[in-house]
């Protein structure tokens, strides 16, 4: 079964949902600004921009806008994987998906790509104006690099997302677990709270998340880093994602078997 | 030739929690299927007929690879439903719910395109198949091409659901109460189509319903299922002929007396329904001529007025009551 066929179907599904549900489209456009604005507001209220620059090495506005964008891209990709089994179950489509001969791993791999594409495009309305304001023309090329790295960051997260999704949805009321998993991902990605400041235990968990390397890479890029780091961090990110692929496959098979053992509800 | 569907001694037991308080509960087991066996050939519509909770949907779900049996064996197109799930899935089309199971913000056509992709259909092949199905089910005339699923009427939803079952042109169809809640024209359309699919396209169709009239119209063979057991099987005529001596005294009565008191005294099996103060009582008897006068008198003596009284041949519903009460 072709991955492209599934991807096209997912594009149609997601884009119809987003474009025909105006509130969803508005949320996608507004969310990065809202998120960055809120964090900056809290940041400026609690501390001074100078101390932020001294500690982190980047202007807080650039840092927060970038962090919000990357978080949005990465978690949106993972969200699709984490939420779809639930929403399909509520809508009543899950039963037909499970009863079809589709390769479930391929389907889950295709799920996050359409919304991710949309979000990546949003980079040109959210981070581009800020980068141009701060860095001039260099901001344009920087935007392209950050968008590309966000795409990689979201894609390398897919296998881990599938592994978590498969394990999570065998539990009843898995949406409760999901509301815990999501903020944890926020923290461990190190986008708002850079990994270098994390306690050792948190840092070790963060190292096990493939996207955290691309987040770190972007942060270093904004500060100014040696080129060797790019290769190492990207390599680690992709290698870790590859390790999670078999785990994702097993997890999704386990979920499907468990569902069938209990009986998939047709509603 | 391999049977399209072959089920041997399937047993399914559900675990249910019985709540005895906020924190206290006990686990009980309910036998949904108690050793069900049957087979379906290509080119025939087999009806699985029974009341709610009889085990119809459980059977369909096991055959659709959506539920594992606890014991017994089931084969679809020669493939084991437990061990060869993917092979089974390639060969079945299912319809489990009329109302739900589609994406609300997609049109009928787009929904079919999405599900076609799950079966590996794409491009021209998918488009042609969907065109054909929209036309076959007359969804093209009803706006299935451009209306969002959330704007569909129940009849349109049912048609779309059947179209999805037919998307991959599977040789075996498993249809769970496909006409439930539909208006007469939509129900008739689906019934006609189901018969055509079996007889013209040689598909094997397992069709669950609790509508006796429908079963008699659509099915070549009927399996009566009650409390997890097949209590009788055969063609509608065969089933009726297996209770040759059974007749039905049907009385339409009106009155203020206690109908329960009269019915309690009857020795025969009966059922009754009430509409606008008029009761229709159906009493199953072997020698109606011997008990007719006495039965009518009982109702009159208890303050009922007899509006009409007649002796009828048994319907499939009577057959069902006859066999299912025997089984319990």
From TrEMBL, chain A:
Which stretches are annotated as coiled coil?
Answer: none
Q: Which residues cross the membrane?
A: 24-44, 56-78, 116-138, 144-168, 180-201, 221-247
Q: Would the keyword Transmembrane be found if you checked this record's keyword annotation?
A: yes
Q: What is this protein called?
A: ABC transporter permease
Q: Which UniProt keywords apply?
A: Membrane, Transmembrane, Transmembrane helix
């Amino acid at each position: 079964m072709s991955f492209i066929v599934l991807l096209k179907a997912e594009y149609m599904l997601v884009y119809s949902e987003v474009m025909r549900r105006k509130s969803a489209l508005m949320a996608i456009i507004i969310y990065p600004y809202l998120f960055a604005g809120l964090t900056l507001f809290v940041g400026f209220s609690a501390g001074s921009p100078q101390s932020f620059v001294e500690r982190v090495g980047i202007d807080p506005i650039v840092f927060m806008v970038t962090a919000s964008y990357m978080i949005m891209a990465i978690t949106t990709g993972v969200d699709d994987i984490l939420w779809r089994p639930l929403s399909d179950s509520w809508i009543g489509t899950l039963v037909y998906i499970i009863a079809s001969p589709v390769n479930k791993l391929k389907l889950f791999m295709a799920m996050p790509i359409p919304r991710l594409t949309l979000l990546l495009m949003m980079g040109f309305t959210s981070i581009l104006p800020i980068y141009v304001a701060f860095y001039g023309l260099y901001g344009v090329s920087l935007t392209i690099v950050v968008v590309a790295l966000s795409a990689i960051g979201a894609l390398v997260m897919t296998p881990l997302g599938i592994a978590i999704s498969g394990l999570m949805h065998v539990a009843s009321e898995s949406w409760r677990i999901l509301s815990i998993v999501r903020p944890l991902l926020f923290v461990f990605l190190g986008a708002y709270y850079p990994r270098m400041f994390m306690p050792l235990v948190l840092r070790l968990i963060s190292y096990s998340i493939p996207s955290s390397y691309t987040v770190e890479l972007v942060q270093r890029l904004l500060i100014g880093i040696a080129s060797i780091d790019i290769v190492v961090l990207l390599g680690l990110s992709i290698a870790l994602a590859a390790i999670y692929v078999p785990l994702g496959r097993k997890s999704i098979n386990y979920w499907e078997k468990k569902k069938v053992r209990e009986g998939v509800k047709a509603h | 030739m391999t049977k399209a569907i072959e089920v041997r001694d399937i047993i399914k037991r559900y675990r249910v929690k019985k709540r005895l308080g906020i924190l206290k509960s006990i686990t009980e087991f309910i036998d949904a299927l108690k050793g069900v066996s049957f087979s379906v050939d290509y080119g025939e519509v087999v009806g699985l007929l029974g009341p709610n909770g009889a085990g119809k949907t459980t059977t369909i779900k096991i055959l659709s690879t959506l539920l594992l049996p606890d014991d017994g064996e089931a084969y679809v197109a020669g493939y084991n439903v437990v061990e060869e799930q993917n092979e089974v899935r390639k060969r079945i089309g299912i319809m489990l719910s009329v109302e739900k199971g589609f994406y609300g913000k997609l049109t009928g056509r787009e929904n079919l395109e999405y599900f076609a992709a799950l079966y590996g259909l794409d491009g021209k092949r998918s488009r042609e198949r969907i065109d054909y199905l929209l036309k076959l089910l007359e969804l093209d005339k009803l706006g299935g091409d451009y209306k969002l699923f959330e704007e569909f009427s129940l009849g349109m939803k049912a048609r779309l659901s059947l179209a999805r079952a037919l998307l991959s042109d599977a040789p075996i169809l498993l249809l769970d109460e496909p006409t439930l809640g539909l208006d007469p024209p939509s129900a008739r359309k689906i019934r006609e189509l189901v018969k055509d699919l079996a007889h013209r396209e040689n598909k094997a169709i397992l069709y669950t319903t609790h509508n006796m009239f429908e079963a008699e119209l659509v099915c070549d063979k009927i399996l009566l299922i009650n409390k997890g057991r097949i209590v009788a099987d055969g063609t509608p005529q065969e089933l009726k002929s297996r209770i040759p001596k059974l007749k039905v005294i049907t009385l339409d009565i009106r009155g203020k007396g206690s109908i329960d008191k009269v019915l309690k005294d009857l020795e025969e099996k009966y059922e009754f329904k009430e509409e606008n103060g008029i009761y229709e009582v159906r009493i199953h008897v072997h020698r109606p001529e011997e008990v007719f006068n006495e039965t009518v008198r009982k109702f009159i003596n208890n303050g009922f007025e007899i509006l009409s009284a007649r002796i009828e041949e048994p319907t499939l519903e009577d057959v069902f009551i006859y066999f299912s009460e025997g089984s319990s």
